[in-house]
Specification:
This protein has about 425 residues and is α/β, with parallel strands linked by helices. The chain has two domains: about 280 residues, D-Maltodextrin-Binding Protein, domain 2 (3-Layer(aba) Sandwich); about 110 residues, 3-Layer(aba) Sandwich (D-Maltodextrin-Binding Protein, domain 2), CATH 3.40.190.10. The chain has 18 helices and 15 strands. The strands form four sheets. A five-stranded mixed sheet has the order 3-2-4-11-5, with helices on both faces. The protein has a five-stranded mixed sheet with strand order 8-7-9-6-10. A hairpin with a 5-residue loop joins strand 14 and strand 15. Helix 13 runs antiparallel to helix 14 and helix 15 packs across helix 16. The longest helix has 19 residues. The chain is globular. The two termini are about 40 Å apart. The N terminus and C terminus are likely disordered.
Length: about 425
């Protein structure tokens, strides 16, 4: 069973703490750049960036966010590093991979805040479900008895979806690099790759798991929150140089996105309005119902079972979501080491402290009256029963029975 222990949080002020229009824009606090491109992918969890612009939270802070849709995580990464994007929605492991030089040219990166917890999925081709692979145990049994290579897609070598896929399969005794083949596919193309038989399943963000079920192409294998309840997922990221050179712009963008995160989680009506907005052709470009069901926790498996998942996608959760917890970043590095993306153990805490802008986040959240944890670490139990708390990360990484035997090329098979 997966559990999550949130760190203690400081008390809320109990009053309306929205920053008034004009905050951070007077005198020397004015944003250095009044208009910034913020990259995103066509995923449900781009919502706080989109709504920060659509609801005008950005203009309240003297900056205009220009949401810029990208076709793949690789292109988003390249534009972010090159300065074509000032900030971006990013897979948690993406800026860590760039910072460590294992996913593109090494560049100092910054994680400003976490955008969401939970809400990703692992989908299985309906053709496999017809052969008994209706859950992880059934899939593992089919992989062991069939004499062929099964192929699964994830979205980026150092990204969250790769880590959820690998961890999920390994928890059932399937080695994700020896027993199956994993390839990189942009999230919007996942359902098509299953439909044409190129892959047997995938790990991706919503709405593409639910879209596959609606289209009769896939069935539900697992939700990412089944692997790790309240896991970190996407982040607001930029280069370290952007934080250094444009500190006021960075604060303004963070404040706007943080306000949007709070707004989304404030009511079911706000969530539905968000779904209607991001479903549009400029953003996710899908039907509203492909988004609206799972953001309310309404899940189905494509085989007749329906349920309410209380641990669905959250954008704020009283501020618990958004704090850039150091142990979250450290966990991804333990998995990079586990799967051979790192040749040796990094300075786990040192690197996380460099990347995650904890002090800056506390400052911005404090100005908005949003509570922040008193501890930079948290403790969680994952699907295989292992406890992750940020302590002894090298020992944690080395303790897994299923792990890579050799160093893997991080950028292999990345689409253009």
């Amino acid at each position: 069973m997966t559990t999550s222990a949130a760190p203690a949080r400081t008390a809320d002020t109990g009053k309306d703490t929205a920053v008034s229009a004009g905050a951070f824009v007077a005198g020397s606090d004015a944003p250095e750049t009044p208009q910034v491109k913020v990259g995103f992918m066509a995923l449900t969890d781009c919502a706080s960036i989109v709504m920060a612009h659509e609801l005008g939270f950005d203009r309240q802070h003297g900056v205009t966010i220009v949401p810029t849709r990208e076709a793949s995580w690789a292109r988003l990464r390249d534009k972010l590093v090159a300065g074509e994007l000032a900030y971006a929605q990013a897979l948690y492991g993406l800026p860590y991979g760039v910072h460590l030089g294992i996913s593109g040219p090494r560049t100092d990166m910054a994680v400003l805040m976490t955008l969401n917890h939970n809400g990703q999925g692992l989908s299985i081709a309906r053709s496999l479900a017809d052969q008994g692979a209706t859950d992880l145990n059934g899939l593992a049994a089919l992989i062991r008895r069939e004499r062929r290579t099964f192929t699964f897609a994830q979205t980026f070598p150092t990204g969250t979806h790769a880590m959820w896929l690998y961890y999920w399969l390994a928890s059932a005794g399937i080695h994700p690099m020896a027993d199956v083949r994993a390839i990189v596919v942009p999230p919007t193309r996942m359902v098509g790759f299953v439909r044409d038989g190129s892959v047997d399943g995938f790990s991706a963000g919503e709405p593409w798991n639910h879209r596959g079920i609606m289209d009769g192409v896939t069935v539900h294998g697992a939700a990412s929150q089944d692997i790790w309840k309240d896991h970190p997922e996407k982040v607001l990221a930029c280069t370290a140089a952007q934080v250094r050179d444009c500190p006021n712009t960075t604060r303004a963008v963070m404040a706007a996105v943080l306000q949007a995160s709070r707004w989304i989680d404030a009511s079911p009506a706000n969530r539905l309005r968000m779904a209607e907005t991001i479903a549009g052709s400029a953003y996710v470009n899908t039907s509203v119902d492909a988004i609206s069901e799972r953001i309310q926790g309404h899940y189905q498996d494509g085989m007749g079972r329906h349920w309410q998942d209380p641990n669905h996608l959250h954008f704020f959760n009283e501020g618990f979501v958004n704090f850039p917890c150091l142990s979250d970043g450290m966990w991804f590095m333990t998995q990079f080491r586990r799967w051979g993306l790192l040749k040796q153990h990094p300075d786990y805490l040192g690197v996380a402290t460099q990347i995650n802008q904890v002090a800056l986040y506390r400052d911005v959240a404090g100005a908005l009256g949003i509570a922040t944890p008193t501890d930079d670490m948290r403790s969680d139990t994952l699907i295989d029963g292992t406890v992750w708390n940020g302590r002894e990360p090298a020992r944690y990484a080395d303790a897994f029975a299923i792990r890579a035997a050799t160093v893997q090329p991080a950028d292999a098979a990345l689409p253009a």
